[in-house]
Give the backbone structure.
Amino acid sequence: MIIQRYPHPDDKDYKLGLTPFYLKKINPTADPTVCVEFGSQVKSSDFDRLCNTHYISAFPIISGLIAILVYILPVGLGMVITFENLAFLSHMAAALVMAMSGGVMYLLLNNYLIKNSRKSLLVTFIYLFSSVNFALISQALWQHGPVQLFLLLAIYMFAGIIFEKQEKLDLKKTFLGGLFMGISVLSRPTAGLPVIVLSVFLVYLILKSYSKKSLLQFLLLVVAGLTLCFLFFVWYNKTYYISIENQGYFNQLGRSWLSKFPEGFLGMWISPSKGILTYSPVFLFSLLGAFIV
């Protein structure tokens, strides 16, 4: 259905078997030599059937897994499966993810960081509506929404450990924090960068507030949460993607930043077409705040 609606631009009638950028074609059990021979003898659709082809998402699957919770009720009640209905449900799922991110942000601010409901609401409003979050990210199942949701959930768990200091480390919150960090990386692999920075900062804060024994417990439980996510990744990659080379971000390694420095770096911030400060100028105040602090 999706390929027919949004085909490869050079294969709009799907006669050449070209795969759109958002999908990858997998032939898990076929003999490649046989498939090459088929390719010169049969139509593209027959080629797919004979070579046991299936399609996988070229992007991480966490957004889709979250969306199941939104899809399951209307589809189960008999909603006709059309592209328009699926698009509508994807909008709903993305908006709910972004709304939940805002809810976690408010709880984090009001319970631990600001502790003032009016100021927390104001900052949450800025987070949601003075950035690309509700304007863009809530409009489709991008990876950015789940990344923000799970990173905020992780920070919320760790904030409870740091600000509600107890004699013993809260093991449940520690494990959940590691688990949520792992899911954020599964949502979008580039989340590994803020996770590394956050982890270093957390080690410093835990060592400052707790004993070395508690720090060891903290590290073990966080690693346990991350490992659980890694095992899930290994399982579904082997089952559906066959090879890690079929993961959407794999072929971007070493090719994602092609522009010169500092021109490309500055363009990322002030470019009229997609600059961060162009779409979310409110972040200028964060730079000012960092300078003041």
User: Anything to note?
Assistant: The radius of gyration is 23 Å.
